[in-house]
Amino acid sequence: MTVRAAVAGASGYAGGELLRLLVAHPEVEIGALTANSNAGQRLGSVQPHLLPLAERVLAPTTAEVLGGHEVVFLALPHGQSAAVAEQLGPEVLVVDMGADFRLREAADWERFYGSAHAGSWPYGLPELPGARAALAGTKRIAVPGCYPTAVSLALFPAYAEGLAEPEAVIVAASGTSGAGKAAKPHLLGSEVMGSMSPYGVGGVHRHTPEMIQNLSAVAGRRVTVSFTPTLAPMPRGILATCSAKAAPGVTAEVLRAAYEKAFAEEPFVHLLPEGQWPATASVYGSNAVQIQVAHDTEAGRVLAVGAIDNLAKGTAGGALQSMNLALGLPEELGLPLTGLAP
Amino acid sequence: MTVRAAVAGASGYAGGELLRLLVAHPEVEIGALTANSNAGQRLGSVQPHLLPLAERVLAPTTAEVLGGHEVVFLALPHGQSAAVAEQLGPEVLVVDMGADFRLREAADWERFYGSAHAGSWPYGLPELPGARAALAGTKRIAVPGCYPTAVSLALFPAYAEGLAEPEAVIVAASGTSGAGKAAKPHLLGSEVMGSMSPYGVGGVHRHTPEMIQNLSAVAGRRVTVSFTPTLAPMPRGILATCSAKAAPGVTAEVLRAAYEKAFAEEPFVHLLPEGQWPATASVYGSNAVQIQVAHDTEAGRVLAVGAIDNLAKGTAGGALQSMNLALGLPEELGLPLTGLAP
Amino acid sequence: MTVRAAVAGASGYAGGELLRLLVAHPEVEIGALTANSNAGQRLGSVQPHLLPLAERVLAPTTAEVLGGHEVVFLALPHGQSAAVAEQLGPEVLVVDMGADFRLREAADWERFYGSAHAGSWPYGLPELPGARAALAGTKRIAVPGCYPTAVSLALFPAYAEGLAEPEAVIVAASGTSGAGKAAKPHLLGSEVMGSMSPYGVGGVHRHTPEMIQNLSAVAGRRVTVSFTPTLAPMPRGILATCSAKAAPGVTAEVLRAAYEKAFAEEPFVHLLPEGQWPATASVYGSNAVQIQVAHDTEAGRVLAVGAIDNLAKGTAGGALQSMNLALGLPEELGLPLTGLAP
Amino acid sequence: MTVRAAVAGASGYAGGELLRLLVAHPEVEIGALTANSNAGQRLGSVQPHLLPLAERVLAPTTAEVLGGHEVVFLALPHGQSAAVAEQLGPEVLVVDMGADFRLREAADWERFYGSAHAGSWPYGLPELPGARAALAGTKRIAVPGCYPTAVSLALFPAYAEGLAEPEAVIVAASGTSGAGKAAKPHLLGSEVMGSMSPYGVGGVHRHTPEMIQNLSAVAGRRVTVSFTPTLAPMPRGILATCSAKAAPGVTAEVLRAAYEKAFAEEPFVHLLPEGQWPATASVYGSNAVQIQVAHDTEAGRVLAVGAIDNLAKGTAGGALQSMNLALGLPEELGLPLTGLAP
After folding, report:
1. Cross-referenced SMART domains, in alphabetical order (chains A, B, C, D) (predicted)?
2. At what angle do helices D317-327 and D13-23 cross, to 10 degrees?
3. Torsions phi, psi of A46, nearest 5?
């Protein structure tokens, strides 16, 4: 079964990474590529690393261009996906790599995005309990945010088994591609090389309600999240350091067992051997996730760390993994398990 | 008043940074420079950035070489300072940039370092309550660890005013120079560029008891610390993201006022204007500290972030600041307040 | 046709990159993996990015272990390949990723390596005139050095058409992985981040005679090479900036035509559109080569720039490309054409 | 003697570096600071590393604001300095850190900048033959470009003694700050980290005529320059690799002697011991220059390498050095000789 896929937003980082992966996907034929300000240009001039697609020309992002494909990926700024999606028929698989359809509560959306809520779609994080069932055969997928992907995978086993108190503290470092390709002074190479800095501090980052949504669903009660994102001097990668008070009676063995159980069958999640810790370099360009967990007995906390590539598993790889499930293809098809290191 | 200062361990990163600062200090004359395996070499061959000292030759680290100076800085691996220090007379100001004399409790030392405790000296973090009095006129100084410097400065105002619960959660990113100049495979440029990874997870890092010691002293009760250090792809800098549950009744205003009060007279601590967050690049090569604090009302936590240069304020700059106090010199003398950016 | 391949030196950077590519090669089954000091360890502990091979255990590098495979890759320090190779039968395809069999002249080898010359094997740079014929069906392949790969591809079209004088001047920047995984102080992340520096200056770098050999063969006369390698603050990539005096009568059009002709049928060489210049990021992890050429009329020089990934096209990818030719497989099989960017 | 100095363009990288150095200069009092789009802002919000000046407010760049200072530094885009300078009286020392007054030939200016030539001022590279005499007491200084600073210092001793043929080939790597603080997509951290790429290839870079001017003056005949600048993944630093055919009869000894003679009395130029090569990290933040030279006997070329900090010696430090000469102050006053490493 070969499907034709269009990519809206092919000139940005998420769109470029999706194309890199689609080139290697055996069951996808790459159809229309669209952009906004870059429409009319050769793809080779804006994504020079995509040699096999260099001569493709970017079309404008319209329903006419995107129609006629079995799959349409939307890599658009938030707020733009809904308008495009409603022009695509219900028989088209629409995979939204933006934020529009991630949050289930309209109030959360309105508070963090300040506009009307477009709705919610099946959530593309297959490793979460119940997620695969919702993705099988679906025609609409909301791809998770990059931080929520790393954080939810690192913490959900502890919450699923009631091993952590419902107050999570998360500090995550992200490579600069997470901030996109729009030229802003604080994202210049001169500014970011050699520097670590936080942003969106104090619970205001838009990925916070998504983490709360995921962890609360698994825990069966409201989990609060103290989330501090930091910008790291690297192009890609998220390292999420997550902790919560250990529930009474938790031991290192119980904790380890919960994580082993959660990930035993997962093709992309690598629970590392004890004593080895995740590194973003190990999952560079890969759809794999590295996870490790520890019990800090002095501080009485569960500490879990997850590493992903924000553009791969955190965006485009995760999108393809969910597409595979929606189309009934093998979940791993066309997705790299190896990182590019050093 | 000009003093002659010797530096033991002049070929390492801490020793090199100290020399960079000493060259610019108006009241210090640089005396003997010693090393272990590099003894006999020109300084220019191992520290090529120190042009004015390029022709100096490294001597072996012996009491004979170090004697006869009014100040001796020890930039040695832990466990070596005590043996050297006891051969230096009580009239010599000995500034230990290693760990040997930082911890007050022998049990803490033994547990984290596995050897006999050498004792404790006045603690060289002048900004802590009561620290300046202990440093004035002293002949022995224990320079704090780099992580404890950043963390203690970021959190102590909250504990001093009883605004935070005694369970601190800290995630800190450090540049690679914090790991020293010994060649280890995981510190190769090929390994660290593009990668973030944690280490010493779960309360086992040796700087943990030092943080507990500092914060507990200020809080007047035992503070537990969940500390996760991470290695960041940059040569220098520490970004410490610290949080604790807010005490009942805390507001953003109260919090801000406590920090303003704590740092109002501090020459090196820059409490940033509200909304501006610390960045390690801003304090590159500087003895300054950038601090910001916020109240996350949803998560109910105090969040404080500190940025320092691990080699400057975190080691060699902090050492000089304390030396100035011990010698009765102006505290800021010879210490840079500007960072090197971009 | 599936072949079984062994990799000697699987714990280093070249070996690791080869394994990353072999995992994705549809006609290769990965057999024995060997190492020297790391023998006995899980591959996952030394190459944590190779998730699908994490549980493989490294064997010692012996003829017994390597025997019984149809292909044996040698990623060993120079001087070790010959001893291993002579124990492998003539029916085994031996691909040497080291230097031992690259140079045709014993005098060159002796001068630059100071030991006895082991001989020369068919040279694995298929894009050079005549190279494919020598590789078809061969059982022995000498994989080129990373710098000679970039330089030879950037310059040979000019020499093949007699458009440049036989005195080439080359300055190339390499990522740190080119120096290998052995821990040396000058390769520490603290040393290389933020720094550019030359090494092996003045014609002493061991890749110099290999460049001379390649360019002279194409030019039909002795070409001298002034080669200056520099270490750049990035893990991978070579940017080779090459120039030579233009031959009389050369024009930009003639030059462009020569390059278009040379690369018209090449699957991996991307002669960029005029005005676009190579960037190492565009070929990160890819077997592709980016080339651009210009005629500096003021200085009277041909200027050609090539960008490759030193570990991919420059080592492991080039090795696989030649293996494909030797085995009669499609030359592009299993080799990535897309780079990993940003 | 204390002078009051104004800085026009204080929000950019050159202006910021100048302020960092001026803070430490004992004979300069910092007066008005001006900007264009950032006028009205606190300096601390745009240059957060300049703690002692954080509360200064940026004024608009007008003659009224700049007047009344003994020294005015212009760190403005090219083409703007002339208009400002002519409004400042002849008694004011005007130091132009831009390009407007560097070139002596109007034809060169018109060809490379496409506008009318504003004239030429005494050239602020004191190490060049005759330069100090022209700078002593002058009221107008043209600060050299960053690349011409590195290249001219690396090559002039060879040309001064007739040891090199008049066809120089130069490949230089620059940190990203050389491209300024304006946000452009190709300068994003995501784009530059991990990448080396050339730009302005084939003799079109605007610094080319300035190099030709300097080297030709020293050589006493027209020197052609093949110049290829490359963008390196680091915030600061220039490494210039320069070569030319050796003149007949040149030996390594003769070459070394020429360089030793040229730099024997230079406070900022460090001709490294034989066998040690420049590294940009060694001059990070310093006004020092590292130089090394070799004779490649096989290729018959003189090879000289220079490393500077593009913002320090290459712009702001060079400006201050020349200011010191113009004002009759000691040339080294207030200028750092040590680099910030690692």
Report:
1. Semialdhyde_dh
2. 50
3. -110, -20
Cα–Cα distance between D193 and C232 in angstroms, integer? 11
Question: B187: which chain A residues are within 8 Å (Cβ-Cβ)?
Answer: none
Residue C206's domain comprises 147-310
Instruction: Looking at the complex, report in whole angstroms how far the Cα of residue A276 sits from the nearest Cα belonging to chain B.
Output: 9
The whole-angstrom separation of Cα D233 and Cα D247 is 36
Considering the domain architecture, whether residues A118 and A43 belong to the same structural domain is answered as: yes
Q: Running DSSP on this structure, what letter comes out for residue C178?
A: G
D242 included as an active-site residue: no
Q: B174 with B237: CB under 8 angstroms?
A: yes
Closest by Cα among B195, B222, B227 to A294:
B227
Are C12 and C105 contained in the same domain? yes
Q: Do D186 and D90 belong to one domain? A: no
User: What's the structural domain count of chain B?
Assistant: 2
Residue C341 is assigned to a structural domain of this protein: no
What does the block give as tokens for B195? 């990668």
C-alpha to C-alpha distance for A337 and A317, rounded to whole angstroms: 10
Neighboring chain B residues of C235 at a CB cutoff of 8 Å: 189-190, 193-194
Is C169 an 8 Å CB contact of chain B? no
Same domain, B276 and B163: yes
Task: Specify if A332 maps to a domain.
Answer: no
- Statement to judge: residues C201 and C182 lie in one domain: yes
Q: Look at residue D338 and tell me if it is in a domain.
A: no
Q: Does C187 touch chain B (CB under 8 A)?
A: yes
Supply the CATH number for residue A43's domain.
3.40.50.720
- Residue reference for tokens 């034929």: A29
Please give the ipTM for the structure prediction: 0.97
Is D225's CB within 8 Å of C295's CB? no
Whether C201 and D303 lie within 8 Å, measured CB to CB: yes
Asked whether residue B43 is domain-assigned, the answer is: yes
**pLDDT tens for chain A, residues 1 to 342:** 799 999 999 999 999 999 999 999 999 999 999 999 999 999 999 999 999 999 999 999 999 999 999 999 999 998 899 999 999 999 999 999 999 999 999 999 999 999 999 999 999 999 999 999 999 999 999 999 999 999 999 999 999 999 999 999 999 999 999 999 999 999 999 999 999 999 999 888 999 999 999 999 999 999 999 999 999 999 999 999 999 999 999 999 999 999 999 999 999 999 999 999 999 999 999 999 999 999 999 999 999 999 999 999 999 999 999 999 999 999 999 999 999 999
**Residues D156, D119 share a domain:** no
Same structural domain, D114 and D199: no
Residue type, B72: V
Q: How far apart are CA C101 and CA C122, in angstroms?
A: 8
Report the side by side order of strands in the sheet with A28-35.
Answer: A59-60, A28-35, A3-8, A71-74, A93-96, A140-142
- Cα distance between residue D154 and residue D149, in whole Å: 9
CA atoms of D323 and D6, how far apart (whole Å): 13
> In chain A, where does DSSP find H-type helix?
13-23, 43-46, 63-66, 81-85, 106-113, 131-135, 146-160, 189-192, 208-219, 252-263, 317-327
Q: Is B192 on the interface with C (CB under 8 A)?
A: yes
User: Do the Cβ atoms of D193 and A189 come within 8 Å?
Assistant: yes
CATH number of the domain that A187 lies in? 3.30.360.10
pTM of the model: 0.98
List the 84-123 stretch of B: residues with Cβ below 8 A of D: none
The structure tokens listed for B246 are: 């807010």
Is C196 near chain A, with CB under 8 Å?
Answer: no
- Same domain? For A80 and A206 the reply is no
Residue C233 at interface with chain B, using a CB cutoff of 8 Å: yes
Distance CA A96, CA A142 (A): 5
**Can you tell me the distance from the alpha carbon of B244 to that of C202, in angstroms, rounded to the nearest whole number?**
59
CB D122 within 8 A of CB D93: no
Q: Does the distance separating the beta carbons of B232 and A233 come in below 8 Å? A: yes
Write the CA distances from A279 to A39, A275, A339, integer angstroms.
Answer: 37, 13, 11
